[in-house]
């Protein structure tokens, strides 16, 4: 049995202008020690998926269907009291902005001790010793000094290491990292990602990494989910997706990487933009931006316009695309 099993997850937001679906039939699994990437543009539903894993969706959002099973127990059906024993303890989360996560009026040590004592019956002295050990694990220089400093006294990279240390405080089974290097420069990004990978491998911790960067995913994860307009449109081993992307959207994301163009030339881009959740196109949501939406006669494909594509298996990957379905059927005949 997988450590985490998400099945047919449906998340909606009840707004004045009507209900919108942020996640549609999202399913995936995560094994112990596995690193999973969730990729897509802004608005694809990545962060909603991350928050939903810990049932952190606030009103007017709610889980309308599906399940999130952690060691066989459905987190979506847990009470707030039961979830408190899981959040931060068994499943930790690293948010995008460390300054929004850390309390500016408490020292680093006070925040770490508070987190530990919320879940364990230990003395302040014991909690402080654990906090110091975790700071050493994430290679914080002069950790004894850092414990008594405040967030504003630390650099961006240092604050992000503190957040990772806090996520590791209670030895979780899973870490959910929601674009953990967004505000950092490239050099620090690489250091943080290397640190996360090292810690997951050393402690056999499962990682769900939310990002828009397929370059980061290729270095960090073993499996990848590509999301578009609230749906998973391709999933499989990361190496296979990077080397032979099947869905036109995944191909577009890869072609948009800076290293895919010659120096001095314009970057490749996917035409158009992510649709609004309140006005998602019928059929395949990607069809207005897809270069393969026309048939051999130059007419729009009716299935792309009218039918939501089902998953088909291509190699070790699953792809939701009518064109890929037709290509596989042609190869099989």
TrEMBL record:
Its EC number is 7.4.2.9. GO terms for molecular function: ATP binding; ATP hydrolysis activity. Keywords: ATP-binding, Cell membrane, Membrane, Nucleotide-binding, Transport. SMART domains: AAA (SM00382). It is a peripheral membrane protein. It catalyses: a dipeptide(out) + ATP + H2O = a dipeptide(in) + ADP + phosphate + H(+). GO terms for biological process: peptide transport; transmembrane transport. It holds the Pfam family oligo_HPY. It is found in: Cell inner membrane. GO terms for cellular component: plasma membrane. It is an enzyme of class 7 (translocase). InterPro entries: AAA+_ATPase (IPR003593), ABC_Ni/Peptide_Import (IPR050388), ABC_transporter-like_ATP-bd (IPR003439), ABC_transporter-like_CS (IPR017871), Oligopep_ABC_C (IPR013563), P-loop_NTPase (IPR027417). Residues 6-254 form the ABC transporter domain. NCBIfam families: oligo_HPY. Belongs to the ABC transporter superfamily. This is ABC-type dipeptide transporter. It comes from Chromohalobacter israelensis (strain ATCC BAA-138 / DSM 3043 / CIP 106854 / NCIMB 13768 / 1H11). The lineage of its organism: Bacteria, Pseudomonadati, Pseudomonadota, Gammaproteobacteria, Oceanospirillales.
